[in-house]
TrEMBL record:
Cleaved signal peptide residues: 1-22
The name this protein goes by in its record: beta-N-acetylhexosaminidase
Single GO MF descriptor: polysaccharide binding
Keywords: Glycosidase, Hydrolase, Signal
Gene3D superfamilies in alphabetical order: 2.60.40.290, Chitobiase/beta-hexosaminidase domain 2-like, Glycosidases, Immunoglobulins
Cited Pfam families: CHB_HEX (PF03173), CHB_HEX_C (PF03174), Glyco_hydro_20 (PF00728), Glyco_hydro_20b (PF02838)
Family classification: Belongs to the glycosyl hydrolase 20 family.
Organism: Lingula anatina
Top-level taxonomy: Eukaryota, Metazoa, Spiralia, Lophotrochozoa, Brachiopoda
């Protein structure tokens, strides 16, 4: 029986193994093409605003065999950038949980490659691949067909996925909801219903016939359908002037006519050349004609100003002919409105064969059109043979799967990967000449366009192929390079509108001009025998900013040493335009370009005088009305250009570049109300992705959550944070308000005496008094029968019998905390209960970090924060004084750090300030600007010292350093302007000015990585360390230097000439460059700080070589190195970093983002302030329940809201045990201030969460040691009930008394049996309700019987009358 069961499983296993072994060979590629079924769906265009949309691909194995990972990739054209926040990126980006890594190849071509974690796709199973893409897709044809699968092995043919093949697009899901057919929330368009279409069609009555009509309508026409002339009798003749030989041939090919030498008296069509009268004037157009049909003598007469007029007269005859070859009596006088009546067809994106163009020419001629613009080149293809430049069509006209593009260019826009189909093809010289002749016979002039300098990917790749071919044929480099359009070592990085990274012809190399001269002459030669070419269309449109910035050929031509990328583009685009103008003018032809090729920016045409051609023609296409660019046509015409209109609906943006104009904030967006933001009132708006399980709480859900906490009626005798031991008797009170109490203190407590006497009316005495005396003495502190080792330990006894209070403290800090316990126990009438307390902190490190860079917080806010931290026995304040968005601490000798780096205003070069970020004002005021002077900072140190809080500034580097980099660059330029030497100017530079490395930081900065390889960086750091130590030295010794170290961007330093010699290998990947140089800088900073005898301090990732591995502790020179550990998103496998670092010998501060980042919202609701990258929300209960000694037990929810348990987390093997608990220093709460602009915002985000933080950092609760999760959670809830009542009845009112506008929780409520029941998270706070839509409010104290059940409005109210926002409970 066992064997029988085993045999089929064996064959299944063998089948799987076969697929695994052959992945990437032709058989497996063919299988994937046949049986991997694709379904593509647009999910929601609206969820990301106008910045992008959510799409999803489903791959289903519909075949009989499993599909596993291997050497295969799927290629697809996606016209919108996939995951624009992450791509392009050479490392790609994994889409969702699909285990498919997406890469941007070039243009619209993307690659999906299975990762090592790709799970075998068994028959009938599917993979769901959700992703974000830029902009929107609202039509089925936005999705391109012919996705194909290819192997990374050579010699394997790519194959189109059968389910995507052809033109049916049947693999594309329906666009059947507004989220799918709308582009953005304010898109008012919807597909027409039959009723709407009926209404629109109703504007047109059915007249029963077309009447006597010609399209296009003549200027004058009089017709009489009652008098018809029959041209079908077979005996009509034709007379024509000799000039109309072509037109005679055209007409006789369509009507049976005998040509005669002179006009006949009847049944004759006569063509004569002469003046054409229209409305009493002689027409000046060679295309004018008159047409008369006379029924009396059966004759037709056309008088034409020229052959074109005769041709159009013939078309009017053919238009008037009935199906039985009759024509009405008619008199027509006609001329065209415009001499230029054109049509442009793009042949590059998809090729159209000769027969299609011939048919198009026939139709254009029928409707009297006279120009055919052939867009024969673009990024995606070169479609016209140019003899002598064979690769232009041999390579540039063919699309196939070859990544080096030396034999063809990559498939784009759904073309086939094998060089066939509409993506491939070109016109030979013979084809093109035949089209010219065919067009000429129809009075249509043909105008080829060769698009440059942008849109030239195909041309660039073709000329590069020529270069390599010539070298392979042993040609000289000079001969091989003769027609190159690119500088092969140009490292400029850019992304074109169509997502090409290499489509800008280099205007600075001689070979480009050689190419253009050859191309112009070749094109003229093609036309010369048949139809003279009067103009050369060179495109000129949509050049990408970033092109040529690193070109060594262009650099000497630029007008300034450090132009911006936009300035580079403008200057060199103009340079090429003038060169092309010069070349074409020498041939006596006009220049022709798209409008933006003739404009220096969105507003200004180039002066017409700089161009040498007699005429310059502008194709004007951009006229989106609301963008302010519709005036381009008139501006160009006024500037002397000839203008052709092309109306195209395409989305871009416009900005002013005029100097001297003050920027102004849009009034509707000003201030903190955010009233211009629409509601988040649907799941599509409040969910982050399709598998986000979170929804905002309803009042009923909130009621259920709040029901965990009973209202105990008071806070009881409580101190926060809770002491280790406390026994109190509220029936025995001591009155401190009698005015005759005295204070005795040991001399060591001078600072604490000053603090206490400033708060209580006490007379200092030289020895303890027998009654009404508070005595502070220094000594050993006993806790639970042992002597405390903490200098912060204390005992506090209040004796009601002799009216005395005694504090014994291990040191001044202990005395200070004893005083805080006294102040906490004092009632509003200055009484204190009999109490005995023995206390010490759980951790010696109890910190709080505040971000001052993103938004600045003034001195008074930090003083208030210090008071509050001290009240709750916190002892570290971490000041995040630098980041990309600002440098906030004056460093004497480096004035620009604050003169430039602390101020935000609108200046694109950032030499006087840095650009506005995060909603800051553009004029250098508001929360985006500001810094602490030396005086400010020293005052804060002293203020903190008096409260036993040590201040630790952080200077974030090498990443997050945009402000510092720009400030030191400003110093460089200032020094040069003051005639300082380059060496002096460069002394503190943090960047290599010619470093062309391209990267994008987490916060989207492209220039925020301090260069670790230049000496000036180390000079800067040495100066900074010494300056910071000097600032602290007289007041509070700085024992550590926090250098940040986090979130360095991959791609930084890869092109740095200073770094290249230091790298350990010749061709490292960008990730290897980052790891090596980050470590190099870390060791340098360690060396500098160790020489000053101080510790090193950094964020966790600054001390790790990758996501898993701390640097060996032995490579750092400091006695202690402290790690701020923050990254613990459970499902990402990084929660073990804290223990890994501790085990490796680092001292660890627990700053876990899921529980201790207070910039996250306090409740799950779109109206709540804060970011939500680590967890959707963090309420006070979550902070209170944090288990710092049992890290993995904190696992609760994934980012999506799906639950995750410690058991599930540890199944993966990521739960590294803590082997060195002595290296856990303590805890730190953190506030990042991107959304925190005011003191009110700050209070709201910090409190009461900081109070819960202080509780956990000082006091280890008994329930924390319970190993059984269910029992531990039950005991924690009991303790939380106590703490929530302490908050509501005591701590929050105290905070309000001290001016803190803390967070007000929303009420919970439900209606049960027509009765309103309500509650709140913190008992003691008032719930209010309104049954008249918020017109009047009533206090809720007990269930309320409702008479008329309508919507109930609810809010919470604090002790001093502040109210929360209101919510609605629907009946």
């Amino acid at each position: 029986m066992f064997a029988l069961r085993w045999i089929p499983n064996m064959f299944l296993w063998i089948g799987i193994c076969q697929v695994v072994r052959c992945q990437g060979d032709q058989q497996s590629i063919d299988y994937l093409a046949s049986f991997l079924q694709v379904r593509y769906d647009v999910i929601d265009n609206l969820m990301y605003g106008a910045s992008g949309f959510l799409a999803q691909i489903n791959f289903t194995n519909v075949g009989p065999k499993p599909i596993s990972k291997g050497h295969w990739s799927i290629y697809l054209c996606h016209i919108n950038m996939i995951e624009p926040n992450h791509l392009p990126n050479p490392n790609g980006y994994i889409l969702g949980n699909s285990s498919l890594r997406a890469f941007h190849v070039n243009g619209c071509l993307f690659k999906l490659t299975p990762t090592d974690s790709f799970k075998t796709l068994f028959p009938g199973k599917s993979i769901m691949v959700p992703f974000k893409a830029a902009n929107w897709q609202v039509a089925r044809t936005d999705i391109m067909p012919n996705w194909y699968v290819a192997s990374s092995k050579s010699g394997i043919l790519p194959k189109v996925l059968k389910s995507t093949a052809g033109e049916s697009l049947s693999f594309v899901g329906p666009f059947n909801t507004p989220q799918k057919w709308k582009r953005y929330s304010f898109d008012v368009y919807n597909p027409y219903t039959p009723e709407q279409r009926y209404h629109i069609n109703s504007e047109v009555r059915d007249l029963g016939s077309a009447g006597t009509s010609i399209v296009p309508s003549p200027v004058e026409m009089v017709a009489d359908e009652s008098k018809m002339v029959d041209l079908g009798t077979g005996d009509w003749v034709l007379f024509a002037d000799p000039a109309f030989k072509n037109e005679v041939a055209f007409l006789t090919a369509r009507l049976h006519l005998r040509i005669v030498p002179r006009p006949a008296s009847s049944k004759c069509i006569a063509f004569t050349q002469g003046q054409v009268l229209i409305k009493g004037r002689v027409s000046k157009s060679s295309e004018a004609y008159t047409l008369h049909v006379f029924e009396t003598n059966q004759t037709i007469r056309i008088v034409a100003a020229g052959p074109a007029g005769a041709f159009y007269g013939i078309h009017s005859i053919l238009s008037l002919l009935t199906s039985n070859n009759s024509i009405p009596k008619v008199a027509i006088s006609d001329e065209p409105r415009y001499e230029f009546r054109g049509f442009s067809i793009d042949l590059s994106r998809n090729f159209h064969p000769v027969q299609d163009i011939r048919q198009l020419l026939d139709l254009l001629a029928r409707y009297k059109m006279n120009r055919l613009h052939l867009h024969v080149t673009d990024d995606e293809g070169w479609r016209l043979q140019i003899p002598g430049l064979d690769e232009l069509t041999a390579v540039g006209s063919k699309r196939c799967h070859t990544l080096d593009e030396r034999t063809c260019i990559l498939p784009q826009l759904g073309s086939l990967p094998n060089g066939t189909g509409s993506g491939s093809g070109h016109y030979t010289v013979k084809d093109y000449k035949s089209l010219i002749l065919y067009a000429k016979a129809r009075h249509i002039s043909v105008h080829p366009e060769f698009d440059m300098p942008g849109h030239a990917h195909a041309a660039i790749k073709a000329t590069q192929a020529r270069y390599y071919n010539k070298l392979a044929q042993n040609a000289s480099v000079a001969e091989a390079s003769k027609f190159l359009l690119s500088e092969l070592n140009d490292t400029s990085r850019y992304l074109s509108v169509q997502h090409f990274t290499d489509d800008a012809v280099n205007p600075c190399i001689n070979s480009t001009l050689t190419f253009i001269k050859f191309l112009v002459k070749s094109t003229l030669d093609l036309h010369a025998p048949y139809q003279l070419l009067k103009s050369f269309h060179y495109g000129g449109d949509e050049v990408s900013t970033g092109a040529w910035v690193n070109s060594s050929a262009c650099r000497p031509l630029l007008p300034s040493p450090n132009p911006t990328p936009e300035e580079v583009k403008r200057f060199l685009k103009k340079l090429l335009l003038k060169a092309v103008s010069n070349i074409t003018a020498r041939y006596g032809i006009y220049l022709y370009a798209w409008e933006d090729g003739l404009m220096s920016d969105t507003d200004t045409p180039y002066p017409r005088s700089i161009l040498f051609n007699k005429q310059v023609i502008a194709d004007v296409w951009q006229n989106i009305w609301e963008w302010g660019v519709a005036n381009r046509a008139y501006k160009l015409a006024n500037a002397g250009y000839q203008v052709r209109y092309d109306v195209i609906d395409n989305l871009r943006y416009v900005a002013s570049s005029k100097s001297g104009i003050l920027p102004k904030v849009l009034k509707s967006t000003a201030g903190e109300s955010l009233s211009f933001v629409g509601p988040f009132n649907t799941p599509q708006k409040w969910k982050r992705y399709s598998f986000d399980v979170y929804n905002p709480y309803t009042p009923e859900q909130r009621y259920h959550i709040n029901s965990e906490v009973r209202d105990l009626g008071s806070a009881g005798t409580s101190i926060v944070p809770s002491p280790v031991e406390m026994v109190a008797d509220e029936s025995k009170m001591v009155d401190l308000g009698t005015g005759d109490w005295v204070l005795f203190a040991d001399p060591a407590f001078k600072n604490e005496v000053a603090f206490l006497t400033a708060r209580l009316h006490l007379r200092i005495v030289p020895k303890p008094a027998s009654s009404k005396c508070i005595a502070l003495t220094q000594g050993q502190v006993l806790l639970k029968g042992r002597v405390s080792k903490s200098s912060e330990a204390y005992t506090l006894h209040v004796f009601e019998t002799n009216q005395t209070i005694r504090i014994v403290a291990a040191g001044p800090a202990g005395a200070f905390y004893g005083i805080q316990s006294i102040l906490s126990l004092l009632t509003s009438n200055n009484k204190i209960p009999k109490v005995a307390i023995s206390d010490e902190p759980r951790y010696g490190f109890r910190g709080f970090s505040i971000d001052l860079s993103r938004n600045f917080h003034p001195v008074q806010d930090i003083r208030q924060l210090l008071d509050l931290l001290a009240r709750y026995k916190m002892n570290r304040l971490h000041l995040h004084v630098t980041d990309d968005e600002g440098w906030r601490l004056q460093i004497p000798g480096l004035d620009e750090l604050t003169a430039v780096g602390s101020k935000r205003c609108h200046t694109l070069d950032e030499r006087t300030c840095i650009l506005p970020q995060l909603g800051s004002l553009p004029n250098g005021t508001g929360s985006g600007s500001g810094h602490y002077t030396v005086k400010d900072y020293k005052s804060l140190i002293l203020y903190a010292k008096a409260r036993h809080i040590s201040v630790h500034p952080e200077f974030d580097m090498p990443g997050h350093a945009h402000a510092a980099i720009k400030a030191t660059q400003a110093r460089y330029y200032n020094k040069l302007a003051q005639n300082a030497s380059v060496a002096e100017a460069s002394k503190f530079l943090l960047s290599e000015l010619n470093d062309t490395s391209r990267y994008l930081s987490v916060q989207h900065f492209t220039d925020d990585a301090v260069n670790p390889c230049i000496n000036s960086t180390l000079t800067f750091i040495k100066f900074l360390v010494k300056s910071t130590l000097d600032l602290h030295a007289p007041y509070q010794l700085l024992k550590s230097f926090h250098y940040g170290g986090d979130e360095v961007s991959t791609g930084a330093w890869v092109n740095s000439s200073a770094c290249r010699p230091l790298l350990p290998s010749s061709n490292p990947t960008p990730e290897e460059v980052k790891r090596f140089l980050k470590k190099l800088l870390l060791k340098a900073v360690s060396n500098i700080t160790a020489r000053y005898g101080i510790y090193l301090y950094a964020w966790e990732d600054g001390l790790m070589s990758d996501t898993d591995t701390p640097y060996p502790r032995s490579i750092l020179f400091n006695k202690q190195v402290i790690a701020d550990v923050w990254q613990n998103i459970w499902e990402w496998g990084v929660a073990n970093r804290a223990y890994k670092l501790a085990n490796a010998g680092y001292q660890v501060v627990m700053s876990q983002a899921t529980h201790l980042y207070f910039d996250h919202p306090q409740e799950l609701d779109p109206e709540e302030r804060g970011f939500y990258w680590a967890t959707r929300f963090t309420d006070t209960k979550k902070v209170f329940g944090f288990l710092p000694d049992n890290l993995y037990a904190n696992a609760d929810f994934k980012r999506s809201g799906e639950p995750i348990t410690e058991k599930e987390l540890c199944k993966t093997g990521q739960c590294v045990p803590l082997q060195k608990p002595e290296n856990i220093l303590g805890m730190q709460g953190n506030i990042w201030s991107e959304t925190v602009r005011t003191s009110g915002h700050l209070h709201e985000m910090l409190f009461p969460r900081v109070v819960a933080l202080a509780e956990r950092a000082w006091h280890k609760a008994r329930w924390e040691s319970i190993t059984d999760k269910a029992s531990r959670d039950q005991e924690m809830l009991k303790d939380w009930e106590r703490f929530a009542n302490v908050l509501g009845y005591k701590e929050l009112p105290r905070l309000e008394y001290f001016g803190v506008k803390h967070y007000l929780p929303l009420p919970g409520a439900r209606i049960k049996d027509k009765t309103l029941e309500a509650n709140i998270a913190f008992p003691g706070y008032q719930v209010q309700y309104s049954d008249d839509k918020s017109k009047t409010w009533k206090d809720y104290s007990q269930p309320v019987q409702l008479n008329n059940i309508g919507p109930i409005y609810l809010r919470s109210r604090s002790k001093n009358g502040r109210t929360s926002r209101w919510i609605i409970l629907k009946s």
